[in-house]
Structures are given as C-alpha cells and as structure tokens.
C-alpha cells in the first residue's frame, strides 16, 4: 500500500505527476470518511440516548420547567441536612442552571453547579459544564479539545449520579415563578408553597385555582377568595397617620416583601385611577425603599435570585434603574428620629405654617406630623418615581412633586420649616443657580433649602456626620453665614438599622442678614482620644448619643463610629432635644395696622407679591402668607379684571416661549384682546391713574403697563405688538449639529463655556474627534496634577489676558506632559513683543524699580562714603507707597549733597526722598503774627532753587538708569514681566441667539460683542458713545446671564429720572421678563420694608433702581466693621513699618490720625442700634450690578502723598465709597465678574479718571501689579509737574501739581482694555444724522474791547498784590471774561446793547431756521451755561425769549429747561418738544445734557458759550446727533466773540477732546501724551487775551522764564563763591589737621604692646600691682579733684594719665597721652574703669584706620569741589537766548525795557523775595 503521509518527501511530487497515485489517494480518502462517519454516528446515537434519559430525570424533579410552564424553582427536602436546590431556566440562552447553595461565615456558596443545554422539541438535556469547589473539579465541554469525548462522558456521568440522588431525596418546590405568557416568557407570577399548600401568590384567584387543580395543590385560606374589586372612589382625600413606631425594623427579606406588596398595590390603584383607602395605606406605608437591599439587584446572589427575577419583571426599566441606584443613597428614617425632630420644633415654638421636605421618600415625616401642627401645609419633593407616587397615595392632601430637587421651582423665603433626611453621596446635581458653589448633593440640599425657608425659619435635617466633621469648612461657613446653628445631635450607628453610618440631626435658623464672623462649629477639633470631630461636639459632648470608637467605614477605610448607650434611642433623644434652644416667630406681617389682617397660607401657584381673587375676596401674596386686602367694589372689579389680563399675558408668554402651535397662540391673543377691550371700556387704560393705584403693588404691574403704547399726553397710541404678533424669540433646539465648529458655537451660546460632552451629544462625534477637529480653536487648560479635571477654553480666551503667567504654567506642564507643547508654541506667538529700554520711560519714584537700584544711584550720585552708607539707607513701605531715607543729615561734609544736588536748606538726600515720593520740595520760613501765632511762609526763592535741584537729580537719574548693560537687562525684564504681558481679548458675540428676546429687535454687531464681553469676561466698562445702545446691551446681557445660570439676581442702578424708562425699555426687549422697578415712592419709609422684602425674596430677572435709592441700601454693619478693622490693621502695619525704618514723623502722625478716625467710625457702628432695621445689600442677594451713567461716581476718595493735584478727589463722596464697597463685595462673591459700568464719557477731564475706573472694576489687577496705591500708578504711568502759581483768589501763592504727561501708555491701555469695551462714534456706523459744525465769529464792540483791556489791568494788580483778594481774584476775572464774551450787559446792566453781539446773531439764526422749518415743526436747542434765568437782573435767557416773542413766535413754543423742576414736568416738556409743540428749548449742559431725549425733530443746536470740559461739548452734540432724529442733516452752531476769551476756551477744550479720543480709540496708542486738565486762566493767558496780541502771552511766559533762570544763576554764583572759599581755606586746613593726627596715631602705636592680664599702674608716684587696689586708687584720685582742667595723676602702659571733671554732665574723664590725647569716661566701678582704659588703648589702631578713610574722603571732596567750581552755569545759553527773545518782543510791543522786565537780581543774604513786606500787607 503506497504511503499517503504528507511528511513523505515524494508525496507532493507523486501527487502532481503520477495519475495512479492520485486516483488511489482519492479512493482511500472516501473510504476513510465513511468509516469516520459510521463511528461518529454510533457515538451520536449513544449520546442522544444518554441525553434523553437526563431530560426524563429532570422532568421528574421539575416537571413545570421542563414543560415550559415556569422558569424558576427553589426546592427543599424534609431533612435539614440537605442543602436547598435552585433550578433556573434561561429562555434566551436555552439553558438550565442547577445548583445547591448554603452559607459559610455569612458568605454564600453555590456548589456543585451544573449547566445544561436544553432542546424541548427533541426532549434532550445536554450537560455543558460542571463545577464543584469542594472536590476541586471544573469541567467544560469544548469540541476543540482532543479529549472532548472523554469529557462529555464525565459530564453525563456526573449529571446522572446527581439527578438520581435528587430523586432519591425527594426534593419538593418551596417557591416558583410561573410564566404569565407562554410565548414571550417575560412576565411572571410568583408562588410560595408550604408542602402541598399554595400560601402566597400574585396570580388572580381564578388562575390560582386552576393552577392548583392542574398540579394537585391546595390553595391556602390566606389567599383572597376573589380578585380585588374596584372600590368606590373615596369621597374625601385622607392623609395617613403613622402609628407603628417600629415601622421598617424587619429582616431584609421581610422588607423586600413589604416593598413588593406596596408596589403591586400602587400599580393596581393607578390602573383603577383612584386613591388608596385607609387599609390600603397600611400596606403602602410599609414600603421602606431599597437602602440596604442591594442583594435583590445582584443576579449572582442565588439566595435572592427569586427576588431578582421578580423585580426585573415587576418594574419598568426606568423604575428598576432608579430603585437600584437608590440602594446606596436611600436610607429609611426611623419614626423615633422623626418624632424627636417634631418635639424639638414644638419646643422652638412652631405650631403651624408651610413645611418642606425636599427628599421626602414616601413621606414618613408627613405621617408623623403631631396633632398640634395639623394646620400646616405640607410640600414634598421626591426624585424616585415609585416613592413619590406612594407618598401621593399616603398623603393625599399634601403637595408632592415627583422630580429632582434641582428641577423644582419652589418660591424663595416661602417655607416656615424644612425637615427631612438629605440624600448623601459624592456626586453633584446640575442647578445653574448653585453650580458655582460646586457642592456635593447633601451640601446642595442645605444651600437650596436655606433660600427656600423664610428669614427666622427653621431647618431640621438628618445628614451624614461628614457635614459637620469634614476638614474643609467651606460648606459650614456658607451655612453659618446664612443660618444660626441652634444645636446638633449625633445619633448612634444603629439609628438607621443596617447602614451602621453615623448621622447627625442639625437644627438651623435662617438669619435676617448674612453674618461674616466664624462660629466655633465651623471648625473641627481633636478630642482627648485623638478623634477629629466638629468643635461643637467637643464643646457639647452631651449631644453625642453614645461613645466614639474606631471602626472600618461602609466603604472599607478606617473611620470613627458612635456606639449607642444601653438606653432606648427615644430616651437619649428626649434628653438631647431639650438642649436645642431658640424661638421661631410667627410670620411678620409687613403692615403694622391696628386691626389684624386676615391671612391664609399662600398658594404656590400665585406669584409672590401678586394679587389673587378667592371667592369675592382679594388677597395679596407675601412669601408664605396671602393677606386679605380690603377694597371697594370698583377697585375689586379693577383688580379682578387686571388679574384676568395678567394671567392671559403670562399664558401667552408661556405659549410663545415654549413654541406652542400658531393657532393656539392666535387664540390666546384673541382672548387677550377681548379681555383688554372689555376692561378698558369699563375702567380706562391700564396706565390710567385709577388702575395704577389699584394694581401697582402687583409684581406684574410693569408688564401690564407695557401692553399699551402711549402718546406723550398719556392717551393710547396703539396696543403693544403682543396683541397681534410674536414678541418672544423662541428658543432654538439644537438637535442636528453637523460639525465640531458648529457645536462649539452652540456650546458657547447655551453653556457659556466649552463643554466637550455636550458638543459630543449634539453631533454624535466622539470627544476625542471633537478635540482633534477643534485643535488650535480650543485649548486644554494645563492640569497635569489632576488630569481628570478637563477644562477647555477657546483660543481667543486662552491667548489673551496675562500671557506671561499662562506661558509659565504651560512650560512647566509641557516639561511633565509633552502634549502641552502646542500651548507653549501658541502662547509664545501671542506674547506681546518685548519692549527695549529705549521704549520704556522710567520716572524717579516708579515703585516697580527695586529699592537696591535707587540706593545704588543715590550712593553713586553723591559719592556717599562707606561709613555713611551704614546709616543712610533707602527703604519702601508698601502700605502707603512711602519711600524713606534714614539718617539724611549724616553726610554733612559732602559737596555733592549740599551744593551740586542740594541746597543749604535741603540737602540732596531730602530732595531725593521727595522725588521718590513724587513730592516737590517746599521750603518754609516761620514768622509770628500780631497774636503771637506761628505762621509758615513759603520761601519762594529757596523753594524754587530746591525744585531746580530736584530736576537735576531727576535728569541725572534718567541719564544713569539705562547706562549699565546688566542693570538695563534686569529692569527691562522686570517691566516686561509686570506690565507688558497683557493682550486684551477681542470678544465676538456672533454665535449668541438670545432666546426670549423680542424678534422685531435685532442687535448690532458691536452690541453682541459687548454682551459676549459681559458673559465671558471679568467686570466690564461699556465705554460706548452716546446712542450706541448700552441699555439693550445691558438688558440682553442680564437675561443671558440669568438663562445660563451665571447670575441669580441682577440689579440695575440708573439715573433717578430714567428708572421708569429703563423698565419700559427692558420689557420692550424682553416682554416675558419678570422685573421689579423700584420708584421713589417705594423708598418712602412706610414702603421701604415691603420693597426690600420683595427684593430679597422675589425671583426677579432684574431689579431696577435709581442712583440715590441705591445708596439707601446699606452694606451690613458686619461687613462695614470688617472693612474698617482691615484698614486699621493695615494702618497699624504701616505705622510699625515706618517706625522701624525711622520714617517721617509727619507720615506716622498722619497714619495715627487716620487710625483714630477709623476707630471712632468703628465705635459708632458698634453703638448703632439701627432703628430702621432694614435689609442689607448682601441679604438682597444681588450678584450682578449694572451701573448706568457710571461717570456720576467718579468722585472716589483716594490716598496720595501728592498735594493739590488737579483732577484728583481727596474728599470722600459718600455715594462713591458706598458703590466702591459694594463692588469689592461683588468681586469677592463672583471672582471679579459681578460689575458692569456703562458711560459715554469714562474720561472727561483727566487721565486720572481712568485710575478711578480701574479701582472700581480692576482692583485685583491693580493689586497684582502693585498699583493699588495711586502714587504707584502715577509713578509708573505719569509725570507730574508742580509749579508755584498765584492762587485763583489772588491772596497767596500755592503749589499746584498737574500731570504734565502720561507715558508707557500702551501697557496702561492694554490693562484698562481688559475691562473697558470702548466704542466711539467713528468706530460705529450708527444711523445718525450728518452733523454740520458752523463757527459763527462776531466782532467785539468798542466797549467789549475796553473791558477786555481792563481785565488785563485787574490781573496785573492782583499779581502785584495791590488789591484785596476778596474784592478781586483770577477766578472772578476768568468768569467776567466769559460773561463779557456772551453779552457786555452781564458786566454792567447800564451798558448799552450791542446790536451785533453773539446773542443777537444767535437770535437771528434761530428765527431763520424757525421759519424755514415751520412745516416740519423742527425744533432747536440753545445751550447757555452762564446767565440762567432770574427775575431781578438782566439775563441772556430772558433776552432771547423776549426778542423771539417780539418777532411773533408764540409763547407756548419757547421753554426753559429750568422751569421743569420735577421728573414729571421734564417728561411732559420733552414730550412737547418731540411733538413740535415746543420748538425752542433753552437750557444749560447740566440740566439739558444726559437723559434729554428730544432728538426726533431737532434741526439745530446753538452753543452760546463754551463749557470747561470736553465731555460737556460731547453731551451737547449728543442731544442732536442721535438715533431717532428724522432729519438727515443737522446743524451745530458755535458762537465766538473775537478778541475775548471765547476762541481760546474752545481751543483748550478741543485739545482736551483730541487727547481723550486718541487715548480711547487707538489700537496701539503713542507711548506718551500730554495730559488735559481744567483750570482758571493764568495771568499770562489773561494778559494776552486782554491785549488781543498773542505775543503778550509769549512775553509773560518769557518774563517768568528769565526770572527763574536769573534766580538759578544767582544761586549758581553763590555756590561757586562758597566752593572757592572752601578750596582755598577749609579743605587745606582740614587735610593738614587729619595728617597731623594720623602721624600722632602712628607714633603712639609704635611702642604699643598687647596686654592680656593687668600688670601694674603708677598713681601719684605709687606703683600698684593689685588690680582691685589700682581701681580703688583711680576712684580716690577722682574724689580728691573736681577741677575742669586736666591734672596729671600717673602712668599706665606707657601713657601719661590725666583726669578732669565735666561739670555739665557730672562725670570724670581720664585722658591717656603720648603724642595725642585719648579721653575715657570714668564710672564708679572698681574694675570697670581699668577695662575702659584698656579698651581705649586697644582701639587706637581702629582710630588710625578711620582717620585714613576720612583723609581719602576729604581729598575726594576737594577734588569734587575743584571740578564743580570749574563748571559753567549750565543754562547760560538758555538765559541769553531768553533775554534776546524778550528784548525783541519788548521792541515789537514797543514797551520800555526798564519798566517791563521784573527786577529778579538776587541780593546776597536775601532769603525771601520780599516776604516780610508781603506778610505785613496781608495783615
């Protein structure tokens, strides 16, 4: 036979080439296959036979499973020795599992365990696996296994033997699950057997009977004979009362059975649609939830398999999931605990009210309510559907919401009491209002409930001990600020049965207002045993109901537990609750009328602060009560009608918001029209006085008012759009978003952040793919230490702000995790370009420069000797930004300190200190007046010289600072790091959708961007030009913040007269908004309490309030105290720091005085018994503040060491400091996101106003850059210039500091733009008319010319001091100059009228325009800030009016703004102007500026005079160049009288305006710019204007310059002569004396030998070797002589000894002499004197060293003096040029030189430039 082995090397060769071989191989294979088949067929037949036998045996044991009637049998035998047996059929897998089960040490064991594959059609049962751990066998059939046949045999053997044994033991069924439906086999009936009896089943009785008959069982009497019949519906709802105190104390299986019975009954009741009866409530009340029953949900627990399957079939998928999840968080509250809580509430005085249980389960707290509290209304919330539905059946009269607490819309401050057992778990719920707190579920329940309970209400919660014991005290602090802890009880670990968890009962009482001080219970402490528990329990051990022991917690970690005492729990609790002290007041009714108001508990369906009608009575809801309102019949009908309209409007709003079908909306609109028409026919317009009085207290009153569009006279113009069209933009549903980019836009719009999970849900794209698609558009914020914390932000957010800080974090992160390298790369590209030294301006005094650098400059500049450096040191106190140089007068011999850079009155050290402190040095002389009072007189000459030296020091500093390359590098790095790291963010709001907004209104691009800035940025300043739409920006931002949960209670603070207009515009944009508009009337004392209560407890979208009303809402006294205490502490630190650095006594005194004032303020607060006990700003709960026209708050106090600085307020405006405090509070609670300011003029006068805005909005940024002190800010960005000038009143000279320029502007503006959203007119293309500016120049009259000249003469007299300042001064002259330019009769009424005056030209212009536009009824405004209307004197207002009347203009068409003295009259007047009834309105900028919206018909405005401030000109123009003006072209006339002050003033103001515009709009502003400032005109300006020749001004300026330069030259010469004297005499003598002394010292040292021990001394020819005797001998020698001349007494160590007596100081001096004398002060000590003498001798070498240093220093001083004396006067050329120019101008002006150049030559010894004569004149 050939070989058919493939291993044969010839096999393949033969197969391919040999046909015979191939044929024989095929035959062989066919034969073999048949052979194999016959073998396997035999085996198969044998196997089949075996498997059929197994099927038969199993059928005998569980016939109903094998007939597919049931799916589960639990079986037992009569013997206790046999383990129970469980057999389960899995219909899906077609398998049967069979196993025994028993317990070992509480652990369930299932063995042996066998699985069969079953085929019912063929009736075969094939064993496929067997396991028996006891004999260590595990077999599984595997067809791939070569021993498969052998294994199958083994399995069949085991199966046969096991089934045989079971049949022998006669196992019978104990419980079984029978299929309801023979086809799908999903639903089952449960049957329990006792032998042959059926003892329990949920089968209908008819089916049970049939089943028993079929299978030979007897139905037990326990089974109901009939199916449950539908009971008749109960006529009355009943609340169940729990009587069983042991409810819930049963075994797990009993609790399970109770639960299932309750659920089955619930389903049955719901199917029948009826309420439970009393008996059925007994069954329902036994439902205890699934806490501790986790086994019933675990399919691996065989002893719970029956229950597992039952639950799966009984509950829906959602119910099953909810039940399974509740096994960890839901634990049953025992009746004993509930009873105790009610006892405590009873003790606290609670009898009836609204009770909330926020996690009510099946409502056991409701069922235990004591009889004395039965009058209460119960409100429950339950997440679990089954529990909630059972609770509704048990407590049929209570309000129970089946939803998560986070979804529940319960009113704030509504409930008197909250009780319950809060769920515990380490997870969070999403509730936008509380998300910012980041609390876990149990803490969230506390936070939300505090808001729901009224002030003084009680919260009694059972909670885990971790609420009190966790180390992080944030949650306890949050609770403590809002509630007082009345007491806490720690329960033993068995209080809740199975859980063994330790719980507390906390009793909290809500405070009237937040308190900031910590109570002890906020902290944890350590017990004597070393356990960490809450300090409350350490202080009150009696409140722990057991002993504390160590244990292992539920989840395995080491923990502590409380083991209960032997006594019953109710007794322990009974004792503890008597320690809960406090009292709950009955609810405070606001009106304190003599008669009692009838009240009923509030209906939550009625909005708070709203009317409702019940029967024929009107009620008004306030929090948890509804008070009956007594009204007349007509008022009753009005209220009832308006309630119907109100409720219809609210329904309509809901329909539109939630996108109901159009036909339903149209139907509701028809309804609204009908109700409105019927009502208004009977009672007039909703806005009418009668309806307003009747309904204004209703929270929806403003909503009703907005239903009518009124004419200016109050008549109906039209119904609002809501009657006929959609006014609410429906919310877009984003279900189908295709790309990651689109999803990002939606996420920003809907979540206000990058929410990757949300974006993934929207698109169906995986998180990773979204991140990949948005790479570079979003960035992950580095969090290498906590990678689970994923925060992504958009690129525009990540690549803006402080880039340098972010880059440092990114680099550190990239070093740990390379994926952050892309962050590093992107940030490096975004980093602002590094500035070089040439671009950075440094000012001496800039606080960012390190102290060491200033000190180095000082020492180098003045060649400070090394020994002086030990004493003279520079220090800086950050408290008050104060620089201090210690020991300023130590370096007395320095030429540089006293001559080059200093003066005889102020050395360079003092001048340097003043420079650093931004002070201009002042030198004062002191004289005594006639009454003997000391007076400080400014020494102008010395002061001027000192200030020139200061300029020299500053100039030297500027030349020195950048010279050294190393220093240059260090400083540029510091500056760049501090100030050049910010890239302002560009905000884009294109993705915003604004659900709820009126669809008829579309916001512009700049408005959306500004809203995005508010949503995503920090605090914001909307610096938008007048008319840019700031009102809508703030309104939309507010509503978006509310919608996104980023704000809860926004408040708008607006000018008083605009409050109601704001309310109307708010509702115009968002018709569905719920707003509170607080009017003046609301703030009257009688209404204030109700208003504040509304604010605090109402769920408003916005509260709108006037500026002056806002001030009346106080910060809490606690916070005011805290702020003052912090200030006192800061000042104390400042004083300590200054004292340590030997600071100026003046500064220390100033701080001490401030501290004293603050302490007095604090004492006043402490004593303050607030009579009007109003709610505070914190209690109202405002978390966003919108301030309109914020420039009204610019007058904010700031501390500066600079005196008399223009543009700075050092007076404390109360309203500004109040706002500042509130801004700081909001910064604290919102992380710097709580404040929005809006103003068209953020900078109106000086750049320093920018600092004020930064203090309000950017305080933390200023602090981060060490700029919170104004002086730090000023030294970094500003240059001040102080000059001596005549005070405006002309009585004295004063130092006036002005900001001459600002530098480093790009860095300042970048910082400012983090908050400022700047939009100017040229940046926006607003639909405003074209403005044509026309300057009308008028020639002056001869009288005007003469009067202008006289002004110059007056100015000269003031300067010469020949006029009393009360009679005339510069301010008067400036004012008279302005009056003169307007009309000469304002100077003197008797002067004749100038027919060509600018007033007359203006009148002609007004008349011309009036007649040209008569058809259109166009209107004109006339602005005149001077000469306002008065009856007794000539004034321009009456002049214009009278002339216009003479020309035939009707009197009714001319009006003064001054006559409209109230808001109502203003409104009426503006309305007439808009309608064209008043066509000429005359007023001042102050009264007719902001808020004057009369642009509709305006064609021209006339500026008769020029205001001081650029912002005033802008406000004037803003009245006409405004949206809503029907004219395309408008005209702005400016009238100027030539040769007067007019043109000059306009030029001044326009220069200021250009500067502000340049600063505000440039993307990259210039690095420096001159500042602007307001002032009266200077002497030089007046003289120039008076003459009409600008050269006069130039001459005056040159006069001053020459005067200063001559003074400087005189000082130079004086110093030069002094130095020459020093070089010739002083220094040579001093050098000779030092050299002689050095020679003497060197000779004395030659023979000096060191001496360790005393050897001998010669006193009066006696040689003494004993030290004591020697000491006594010296004392005796002293006693014998008291002369003041030196007397020889002996020798010691080669020195002669001399003594003398110092009679002044009363002590002896011993002098040791060789070549030089060495004095030693003697005492009374025997040994001490010898020690002193030895020390003096040993110190001689040190003296030599000092003298040598002194010689070097003196030689250096001589050298410096020689160099200095050679220097020419550095400003010689400047002086000569100035003299030449002056001479030339004098010739041009044809003035005699001698008369006009002031004599400025300086006499020797002159110290005061004629001071004495001046003082005497002043007297």
Q: How big a fraction of the residues is strand? A: 15-25%
Figure out the total of helices. 62
Secondary structure tally: strands: 57
Q: Assign a percent range to the helix content.
A: 40-55%
Poorly predicted sequence stretches spanning 5 or more consecutive residues: 33-44, 226-233, 588-595, 1284-1293, 1790-1819
User: What number is the mean pLDDT?
Assistant: 81
Judged by helices, strands and strand pairing, the structural class is alpha/beta
Q: Can you tell me the overall shape? A: globular
Largest sheet: 10 strands, mixed
Lateral strand order in the biggest sheet: 6-5-4-3-2-1-7-8-9-10
Radius of gyration, in angstroms, nearest whole number: 49 Å
End-to-end Cα distance, whole Å, is: 153 Å
Assembly status: single chain
Structural overview:
By secondary structure, this protein is an alpha/beta fold. Strands 6-5-4-3-2-1-7-8-9-10 form a ten-stranded mixed sheet, with helices on both faces. Strands 13-12-11-14-15-17-16 form a seven-stranded mixed sheet. A hairpin with a 5-residue loop joins strand 26 (708-710) and strand 27 (716-719). The longest helix has 57 residues, at 1590-1646. The chain starts with 10 loop residues before the first helix and ends with a helix. Residues 33-44, 226-233, 588-595, 1284-1293 and 1790-1819 have low confidence and may be disordered.
